[in-house]
Structures are given as structure tokens and as C-alpha cells.
Specification:
The protein is of the alpha/beta class. The protein is built from 15 helices and 11 strands. Bound molecules: glutamine (GLN).
Length: about 450
């Protein structure tokens, strides 16, 4: 049924870059066999899933939305792919994304934009717009996203889906094509909070192949979602972030956000306003740390080891081949960030830029620590606007960056976050989302409050 839905709708939506019909059908048949043989099954055995094209899948193309990886077939599975396969979930295919996960609209994909299923003239958010659109359009019940500065949560808000960025290090990054290693995290994209909990417990937990993997088991999320669904939040202290309010936020988004806060109060939560003063610098710090890390990560795409090589005429040197291939293979946003990152890391500037950004990062971690002394979770709108028209922000990188105002602090501090649908805007009828943040390794709190609000 999902493959039929993909066949009927993907021409318009462009949510999938690659659909593995024979592979998905074979995995589904194997699941049926396990079921009829009475074997013990994982709760998600046989439930199909879509995977963002940033995670390696053995034998299936993996492009990270870039021309430079066109035609590359990874010879190995990332850990999350391996866990998904071991639990028996058929993999439907790979979903569209901004090139190397840089963007907030999926328009930076080298393979064309993904359209928002609610309005085909609008973006689905980004960078994981493909995963979010696939889930919202019933092409897949579950998807994997990656969130470096909001790329799971912001598309969640824009498509009316649930998106979770787990605690940094609690889901393995082995096999993820790195954007910024200290910020990246894989996580679930689903239609319900309980579905996210089921998927999160499956993909989470220690992995010796990832040196930043936390040795703590990921458990209690399903239980927390079930508990939350009972709708009693008495005793839960919720902090509304003072710095994530004001003129940057569209009135129709704020209206739905305030209604969500009222619902939390009705369910018994104790709601107060809290201030995290360093949040105002988060965006500036992020757009130094991320380009610095990605300029280093992307150096490996030299057209010698992976993907597409463009060879100029004559007898070019290896360096000329690299130059021409990188020029043809990378899009504008990727080049912009490589240049900024290389500049920020160059000797003489390191202390002035990267060093300062790291200090802000520490201040943000401190802000979270202080806030979580008085509240259990923080809450804000996920994104400042509803989905905007395709093309509206492509020539204005700064206004695109502002989409991540609320989501970036969590990545800088490593704390977990969830975006849950908060109803449609009364102005344009498009989805809005509310974001909750919790202390490191307290992901279960997000499931309790998310399921209660849902
Ligand atoms: N939109 C942000 C950026 O462009 C976040 C990206 C992400 O989370 N991968 O960097």
C-alpha cells in the first residue's frame, strides 16, 4: 500500500530520491514468513520505513542530496540502518534533503525541491523535508531524519508530523554523512508520539563504532508516551522560554503556541516563564561552529574516493580534477559554508571566531543547566513561521537561517528535543508545531509531555 501511495504521489512531491521496490517487498515477505512461523517479533517488524539520504544503506544509492555523491552505492550499512534491518522493518527507500543537510526548506537539494503535501507550492521545511513529507503524505508510516540545527523538528512543524532529536550521543552516528560531528543526531519522524518512542528505542543505545556514543541504554520512552497519553501532567514543571518570543514569531504561530500552553495548564502542568539569556547568541555561534566542522568534513569529497568525477580536457593534474569536480559537484550553499568555515579556522582568526563561538556554546549549556534546576522541560514554538512558498527565501540565506532560531540551542548543548503538531494556522491553514526540550538523557520527559499534548 505504501509503495502504491509512493507511485501515485512521488512525481509531485519528490519526497523520495530512490525507492527500493524489490528490496521492500522481499523484506515484507520475510516479515510475513516470520509472523506465520510464530517467531518472536519486534513490535515494528514488517512496518515500512523511509531513510533520509544522509545515512548509508548497503547497496542503495546514498547521495546526501548532492551531485558530488551521484551514483555512489555504499558498501556498508550505518548502525541505525543495521538495527532497522535486524528488527525486520522493510526499507522503502531514501528521502530527499538539502545538500549535505544544509538548509531549512529542502530547496538546496541537487535533485529538486520536495513539495509540502499540505500545499504543493510550499516547502516542507528542511533539511529533512523528504522524510517529513513522506510521513505526512502517507508514503511511509515512519522515517529517519537527522538534526544538526533543527532538520528533524522544523520539517515536523511544517508538515504536521512528530520529530525527535535525541540526546547527543544516544543514537549512533556511524554511517551518517557528517555535516557537523558535534551537532549531528539521527532521530524519528512519525505521525504519532508513540510511534516515535517505538522507533527511538529501536535505533538508540550504545554503539562501539561511534566514539561519541553514550554508554547508557535508551529505555522508558514507550512507557513515558503511554503514561503521557493518559493526559495527566500534574507535577510537571514547564518553562516557556522568554528569549523565544517576540517579533520574529508570526502571530498565527504564536496564537497556536499559546493555545498549546493553555492545554498544558489544563492537564495540570505548572507553567512559568524562564530566561536563557545566551540563546540570543546561539544563531551566531552555530553559523561559525557548523561551517568550521563541515569545511573539514567535506574535504574528503575530492572525486578520487567517492562519487562523481569531472575530468577537464587535456592532461589535468590531480589537483585540477579535484577543483573542477568540487566546483561542479557542490551547490552554492555548500560552497558558502566551506568558505566561511575555512576562513574562520585559518590561523590568526581562530580565537576571534571559532574560539568565541565555543565560549557562547558553553554559556548556552550553562543556561540550560540553570533553567533545568527550576523546570522539567522547556517549551517554545518549533519554527517562527508556517511553511513558506517555494522560492521565497532561496536568495536570502539569512532569512533561511532564521528558521532555526528555536531549534539550534538544543544542538549546541546536546539536549534532546521534540516537535509535536499544535494545530493548523487560522491564517493559512498550514500546520504549526510546538517544541519541548529536556535535560541530557531525559528524553523520556519529551514523550510524556508530547503524548499528553497530542
Ligand atoms: N537549517 C539548519 C542548517 O541549515 C539545520 C540543518 C540541519 O539540522 N541539518 O544548518
Amino acid at each position: 500500500a505504501h509503495l502504491d501511495q509512493i507511485a501515485a504521489t512521488n512525481g509531485d512531491l519528490n519526497a523520495f530520491l530512490h525507492v527500493d521496490v524489490p528490496g521492500a517487498l522481499a523484506q515484507a515477505a520475510a516479515s510475513d514468513e516470520r509472523r506465520s512461523a510464530g517467531s518472536p517479533l519486534h513490535a515494528l517488524d514488517g512496518v515500512p520505513i523511509a531513510i533520509k539520504d544522509v545515512l548509508t544503506t548497503e547497496g542503495l544509492p546514498t547521495t546526501a542530496g548532492s551531485r558530488i555523491l551521484e551514483g555512489w552505492i555504499p558498501p556498508y550499512d550505518g548502525t541505525v540502518t543495521a538495527r532497522i534491518k535486524a528488527a525486520g522493518l522493510p526499507i522503502l527507500g531514501k528521502t530527499n534533503m538539502d545538500e549535505f543537510a544544509m538548509g531549512s526548506s529542502t530547496e538546496n537539494s541537487a535533485y529538486g525541491p520536495t513539495r509540502n503535501p499540505w500545499d504543493h507550492d510550499r516547502i516542507p521545511g528542511g533539511s529533512g523535508g523528504g522524510s517529513a513529507a513522506a510521513v505526512a503524505a502517507f508514503q511511509a508510516p515512519l522515517a529517519i531524519g537527522s538534526d544538526t540545527g533543527g532538520s528533524i523538528r522544523q520539517p515536523g512543524a511544517m508538515t504536521g508530523t512528530v520529530g525527535v532529536k535525541p540526546t547527543y550521543g544516544s543514537v549512533s552516528r556511524y554511517g551518517v554523512i557528517a555535516l557537523a560531528n558535534s551537532l549531528d543526531q539521527l532521530g524519528p519522524v512519525t505521525r504519532t508520539v508513540l510511534d516515535s518512542a517505538l522507533l527511538h528505542e529501536l535505533i538508540g543505545g550504545h554503539d562501539p563504532k561511534d566514539s561519541t556514543s553514550v554508554p547508557t541504554p535508551v529505555t522508558g520512552l514507550i512507557e513515558a508516551a503511554r503514561e503521557g497519553a493518559k493526559g495527566d501532567l500534574s507535577g510537571l514543571r514547564v518553562g516557556v522560554v522568554k528569549e523565544l518570543q517576540g517579533d520574529a514569531w508570526a502571530p498565527d504561530v504564536v496564537e497556536r503556541f499559546e493555545e498549546s500552553v493553555d492545554i498544558l495548564k489544563k492537564l495540570g502542568a505548572d507553567v512559568v516563564e524562564v530566561s536563557l539569556p545566551s540563546f540570543v547568541h546561539a544563531m551566531a555561534a552555530y553559523y561559525l561552529i557548523l561551517p568550521a566542522e563541515c569545511s573539514s568534513n567535506l574535504a574528503k569529497f575530492d572525486a578520487m574516493r567517492y562519487g562523481r568525477r569531472v575530468t577537464p580536457e587535456g592532461s589535468p593534474s590531480a589537483e585540477e580534477v579535484m577543483k573542477v569536480s568540487r566546483d561542479a559537484g557542490f551547490g552554492d550553499e555548500v560552497k558558502r559554508r566551506i568558505i566561511i568555515g575555512t576562513y574562520a579556522l585559518s590561523s590568526g582568526y581562530y580565537d576571534a571566531y571559532y574560539g568565541q563561538a565555543q565560549k557562547i556554546r558553553t554559556l548556552i549549556i550553562e543556561d540550560f543547566r540553570r533553567a533545568f534546576e527550576s523546570v522539567d522541560v522547556l517549551v517554545s514554538p518549533t519554527a517562527p513561521t508556517t511553511a513558506f512558498p517555494i522560492g521565497e527565501k532561496v536568495d536570502d540565506p539569512l532569512s533561511m537561517y532564521l528558521q532555526d532560531l528555536a531549534t539550534i540551542p538544543a544542538n549546541l548543548a546536546g539536549v534532546p528535543g521534540i516537535s509535536v503538531p499544535s494545530g493548523t494556522s487560522r491564517e493559512d491553514g498550514l500546520p504549526t508545531g510546538v517544541q519541548f526540550l529536556a535535560p541530557v538523557l531525559e528524553d523520556a520527559r519529551l514523550y510524556r509531555v508530547g503524548a499528553a499534548l497530542e
